[in-house]
Amino acid sequence: MSKAENPPIPDTDPEPLVAGTPGDDLPEVGPRYIWFLLIALFGTYVALVTPIAISLAIRVKELAPANEEYLGYVIGTAAAISLVSSPVVGILSDRTRTRLGRRRPWLIAGSVLGSAGLFVIAVAPDVLVVGVGWIIATLGWNTVIGNITNSQADRLPEAQRGRVSGLVGFVTMAAPVCGSILGGALATNSVLLFMVPAVIGVILVLLFCVIVPEEDSRGRTFEQALDLRLLLSKFAFDPRRYPDFSWNWLARFLFYFGLTLSSTFTAFLLAQRLRMDVTEIGATIALAGLLGVIAVMLGALGSGFLSDKLLRRKPFVLGSGVIFAIGALTMAFSTGLPVLLAGLVITNFGLGIFSAVDHALMLDVMPEKDTDAGRFVGITGLANSIAQSLAPVVAPAFLTVGVIEGGDKNYMLLYIVAACFALLGGLVVLRVRSVR
After folding, report:
1. Which of 23, 188, 258, 303 could bridge 418 with an S-S bond, Cβ 3.0-4.6 Å?
2. Looking at residue 279, what DSSP letter applies?
3. List of residues 6+ apart from 225 with CB closer than 8 A
4. Based on the number of CB atoms within 10 Å of its own CB, is 303 exposed (0-12), middle (13-18) or buried (19 or more)?
5. How many C-beta atoms lie closer than 10 Å to residue 118's C-beta?
6. Are the C-beta atoms of residues 19 and 153 closer than 8 Å to each other?
7. How confident is the prediction along the chain (436 residues), in pLDDT tens digits per residue?
8. pTM score, whole prediction
9. How far apart (Å, rounded) are the C-alpha atoms in residues 386 and 85?
10. Separation between Cα atoms, residue 48 and residue 297, nearest integer Å
11. DSSP reduced 3-state for 15
C-alpha cells in the first residue's frame, strides 16, 4: 500500500479525521446521470429484493413445506459470504483499469452473474440448490449495487447527496413493490417468477452502462501492486482515525439488523395473522407495498431534500429509528389486516428516511474518497451484510420462544426485538461529530 493511500498510524491516539475531503468540491452532475443511475438501481432491486420479499418464500414453501425456517438459513448464508465478497469487489473496482472505466465492467459482469443465480433457483430440485443459486445471485447483484454506490462517491458533490440519496431511497423501496406485483402474478410459474425480474435488471443496468459515460481508467497508476497481503490489509481501518465513519457504520448495522429481523419473515407474519397460506398472500403484499410507496416517497424524497436544505443529517436518522420502531411494534401486536397495513406503512416511512439520509451521511463521512471509495463502500456494505447474515440465523431463536409443538411461531417477540435494534441505530448516529 502506498503512503499516499494509507498514512502510517502513530503509536499514540491519532487525531480523528473529519469530513471535508478534496472530493467534496466535485462539479454538480446533470439529470441524465441521475435518472439513468436510478433506472439501473430500480432494475437491480427488482431482481434482488423481489426474491427476499416473496419469491424465495414461495420457492422454499414448495420444496420444504414443513420447514419455513430454511428461508432464514438460505438468506443468511448468502449474506455471510457477502462479508468477504463485497469489500473485495470494492477494492478491485478501485484498481480496475479499462477503456470502459473502473465501475462499468463490474456492473455488466454483476448483472449477468446475478441473473444466472436466479435461474438456478428457478429450476432447483431442493432447498440446498436454492441456497447455492441465492449465493450466486447475491454475489452478482450486490456487485452491481456496490458499484452504483461507488459511482455516486466518485461523482456526487455534497450539495446533491441528500436529494439523490432521497431518490435512491425511494427507488430501493418502490422496486420491490413492483417486484411483489410481478411475484403475485407469476407465483405459479417458478421460471418466470425469478427470470422476469432478472431480465428487467440486466436490461436497465446495461442501459446505464451504455448511456452514461465513464472516464477511461487505463492511465491510473499505483505505487504498489495489489497482492494478497495488501488486499487483506484493506479490509481493516482504524476506528480512532475515522470515528465518524465508524459510528455511522455501527448505526447502519443496528438499523439493518432490526430491519432484516422483520422483513425476512413479513410474508410468514401476514400468512399467520390472516390465517392464509404464504402462496396466497401475493396480492396482500402488493397492496401493502403500494401503500408503502406513498410512505417511502414522503420519507425518502422529503427527508433527502430537507437534509440538503437544512444542512442536517442526524435528526433525520434518529427520527427514522423512532418511526421504524413504532411501525414494528404496531405489527407485533396486530391482529387484523388494517393494523398490519398501518404498521407496514409506518416502517416503510421510517425506512425511507433512513435509507435516504444515512446514505448521504455515509458519503459525507467517507474517508479517502478520491483513492479508495470502492474500499470504503465495501466496508460500509459489511454493516448491511453482517446484519443480513446474523439476523435470519438469530431469528428462529425468538420465533420458538414460548411455542408449543405445532403452534404458531412467536412473531410478536421477533418484531419487538426488531423495533429495539432500529431505535438503537437511530440513537448511535448522534455520536457523529463532523456532520450536523
Report:
1. 258
2. G
3. none
4. buried
5. 28
6. no
7. 333 344 433 333 344 444 434 345 678 888 999 999 999 999 999 999 888 777 888 888 888 877 767 887 888 888 788 778 888 888 888 888 899 888 999 999 999 999 999 999 999 998 899 999 999 999 999 999 999 999 998 888 888 888 888 888 778 767 877 877 777 777 777 788 889 999 999 999 999 999 998 888 888 777 777 777 777 777 777 788 889 999 999 999 999 999 988 887 887 888 888 877 776 777 787 787 778 778 877 888 888 888 888 878 899 999 999 999 999 999 999 888 889 999 989 998 998 899 889 988 988 888 877 667 778 888 887 888 788 778 888 888 888 887 666 667 788 899 999 999 999 999 999 999 888 7
8. 0.72
9. 12
10. 21
11. coil
Q: Are 42 and 366 contacting, i.e. CB atoms less than 8 angstroms apart?
A: no
Beta-carbon contacts of residue 401 (< 8 Å; ≥ 6 apart): 410, 413
HSE-CB for 268 with a 13 A CA cutoff:
28
What domains does the chain contain, in order, with CATH numbers? 26-218+240-431 (1.20.1250.20)
Residue type for position 265: F
Axis crossing angle, helix 31-50 with helix 158-186, rounded to the nearest 10:
40
Whole-number Å distance between alpha carbons of 224 and 48: 36
Residue type at position 432: V
Identify whether the C-beta of residue 162 lies closer than 8 Å to the C-beta of residue 360. yes
| Rounded Cα gap, residues 384 and 259, in angstroms | 10
Cell of 306: 430537507
Query: Cβ distance 393 to 76 under 8 Å?
Result: yes
Q: Is the dihedral angle over the CA atoms 22, 309, 42, 136 positive or is it negative?
A: positive
